[in-house]
From TrEMBL:
Gene source species: Bradyrhizobium guangdongense
All copies of domain FAD-binding FR-type, residue ranges: 5-107
Taxonomic placement: Bacteria, Pseudomonadati, Pseudomonadota, Alphaproteobacteria, Hyphomicrobiales
Annotated signal sequence range: none
Domain of life: Bacteria
Protein name: Diguanylate cyclase
InterPro entries reported for this sequence: 2Fe-2S_ferredoxin-like_sf (IPR036010), 2Fe-2S_ferredoxin-type (IPR001041), 2Fe2S_fd_BS (IPR006058), Beta-grasp_dom_sf (IPR012675), Cbr1-like_FAD-bd_dom (IPR008333), FAD-bd_FR_type (IPR017927), FNR_nucleotide-bd (IPR039261), MRET (IPR050415)
Molecular function via GO: 2 iron, 2 sulfur cluster binding; oxidoreductase activity
Residue ranges constituting the 2Fe-2S ferredoxin-type domain according to the UniProt record: 231-323
Amino acid sequence: MRFIETWIPATLVSTRDLSPGIREFLIKPDRFDGTAYPVGSHINVSVTIDGQPETRSYSLVGEASPQGYRIAVRRAEDSRGGSRYMWSLQPGARLDITRPASLLAMDWTRDNYCLIAGGIGITPILGAAQALARRGANVSLHYAVRSRTDAAYLDDLNEALGARMVVHAGDEGKRLDLDALFASLPEGTLTLFCGPMGMLDAARHAWIGAGHPLTDLRYETFGSSGTLPTETFRVRLKDAGVELEIPRERSMLDVLNASGFEVISDCKRGECGLCAIDVVAVDGEIDHRDVFFSDHQKESNQKICACVSRARGTITVDTLLRADAV
Ligand code: FES
């Protein structure tokens, strides 16, 4: 079930390769007024995977522009199909997208800001860097990449931040030491983070270890990143006598809804928790890819965010709703 989602027609105006594995897409809605959107905004894009309509969520890059919305898509090796579809598009392609929305609570009143991006996580961070720099805020950015050739938007970041941007390139032996960084930040610093799940876990632990309040670490991650490889798994519906296969290119949420087991959802990015359903048994392992549940809740495996989280093996769930067709 879709919840608060208004789709608008749009055109892919142009594409630009930012690195061998990252392509930028400029998308303009048919009716577009260039209205500013909040920091951390994303749009949903309707994609087609194996002939089936699916939704993918992408952060908007930079601040609002009269040219349209910019997103950047990494061609993921373990793609569930969304990046393959996006990379297949040519300028002029017609798309359905949603209007920008942000779940990132920004506080403009702090004395100090720290921005952290891992890989393609730079996309929402660029707009934050530009907005903070424009306001004259005391801000620094730490951008972790495998190598500089994988980095995107270095020129824009350099223009906004200059020496206040530090690139941590793994192949140059410059690994980002989150413990040391967070220990050096003044009290009351607000940190915005966007990166893969493993890096987020490390950031959360380092942040707490440095004695900062967890509410001062605001983050986003991407639903495609987890601790286990993206692979097919099975979902058994409690008391329904039904077992569903979740292929690697589809989400559990989509398969449940397509099978008549309606699960409400909103962000489809593992952020709002609306799609959480009860887990009754785990024969294998759950890969929690949301940022909604706490570490403790994830360890207990009592609930799973169906939009992004996956599993290895078979899990039994209870959606509390019964399929119309069963
Ligand atoms: S729909 Fe928001 S966490 Fe799944």
